[in-house]
Structures are given as C-alpha cells and as structure tokens.
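Lab meeting tomorrow. Look over both lines:
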Amino acid sequence: MNLNLLPLLLAVAEERNFTAAADRLGIARSAVSQGVRRLEDILGQQLVARTTRSVRLTEAGERLVEGLRGPMASVMTALEMRDDVPRGRLRLAVTSIAEEFLSGPLLTRFAEACPEVILDVTVTDEEFDIVAHGFDAGVRLGEVIEQDMIAVPIGGAQRETAVATPRYLEGRSTPQHPRDLLSHRCIGWRPRPDTAPWRWEFVENGQPFDVAVEPQVTTNDLRLMIRMALADGGITFGPWECFRPHVESGALVPLLEPYLPPFPGFLLYYPQRQHIAPKLRALVDHVRRWPG
C-alpha cells in the first residue's frame, strides 16, 4: 500500500469535502478523489459515500479513520520536529466555558507570534480521548482530564455564580439559600439532548452539595443562557468570568455568593510524550506567560 494515501483520507474525513481537503493539502481535487478511490480498491471496501451535495464516511471509513488518527498525529509530530520553528496545524478541543482562553486576546497574540501555525479550534463540551480524535491538546477543568495527561493552568482560580436581572427579582423573594432556587424560574445547561440538566453545585460549611433545579429552559449554549437572563428570563448559573461584564454593568445581580467559593481553574492539557512538537511547545509557553 502507498502510505501517502492515508493522509488524503484523513483530510477528507475532517473537511467532509474533497475540494477543501485538496486546498488543505495543497494538491488538486482530482488527486484527492483518485487517491481515496485507490485506497478503496486496495482495501476492497467503500470508505467514502459521495453524492452531488455531500461527502461522508461509511462505517468502514469511520473505523479506519479512528484507527489512523492517533498514529498519524504521532508521525506528523515527529516530522515537524525537523527544526524548532513552530509550524503546521494545531488542533485544539476547548470547552465552551473556558472564557479566558476563548475570549480572543490569548489566541490572537499566539497567532501573531507564530504566523506559521494554523490554529484549528473546536469548541465542544463532549468528553473524549483527544489523542484518538486527532487533537494536539485540549482545554478543560481539571476534574475531567485523564491522569496520564500533562496539564498547564490557564489563568487563576474560577468560581461559579448564579445571576438574574434586578427586574426579574422585583416582587420576588431573592434566594437566600440554594434550596430557594426550586421556587424560581431557572435557565439551565446540559451538554447534549440525551443528558439530564446540569446540577448546580454549592458548598456549605465546607461540604459540597448540589441542587437539581428544574429549568424551564435548558440549552447547551451559554450565550443563550446569558441572553435569556438579560431579558429577565430567570436565574441562570455558570462561570463568573462569563457573567462578569454584565454584573459589573449592573445588568445582572450575583446571587448566593457565600455558597460559591473559588475552585481550581481551566487547564491546557496534552499527552505525555518524550518530545512535543514545536507548535504545541510554543502554545504551552505562551499560556504559561499569559497574565491571567
């Protein structure tokens, strides 16, 4: 087998488009299409289902791609170490609530300092093996990071907060204890439609506990939660950094603060390797220097 055919399939799998895959690889579209077809002929299986409107992997194609992502990432890392200049595609999986990392300045300054690095950031709250899915690194809270990863703090401690508008609270009893939330209209979060709404977590006398509020509105989009809260839609709950501009302006009021102490913040994490690619090393050093 010509191993040069394998990166063609990976590019098609990630771009879901032959033209985009060709542009990414710097070759003709016909070369990508013919290369994938040769790979199918060698394996005797259809790997890509093609229509006039879309391209998708078949079940056999999905299995092959899943098996290739980890090893190919290691090969690409080794090839990129031929010199110390950070270059190449840097794929990151970042949780949607990592406000400081996603706010813009941190990544913009990195891109300016490393012009040959192509940042490919996927914002996702799914928990998965970043190596198996072909990512170089991820950003998450420490409690959901595998123990065999190397982790670098991003900024300082974090804390959750519950917020609502002054207008929503008019004529209502302001919650004095987390259990009072059960009598309020709440705007909740969950990562996927098939999961229960996130339980709101608090601490009392040093003991953590949670409250299973029954949100009238549940979403996986933090921006929608903030917008609905700003529209007097009820009480919502999330990272302080995401609500801070609106609290500082007076548009939102923080609630139940004695029950919401700080906790360790977000981490940039990546797999332990004897050598890491210059592009990832540059990001790690940038995060360590960042004045968070």
About this structure: The longest strand covers residues 88-94. Residues 203 and 259 are 5 Å apart (CA to CA). DSSP finds ten helices and 14 strands in the chain. The chain has a mean pLDDT of 87.
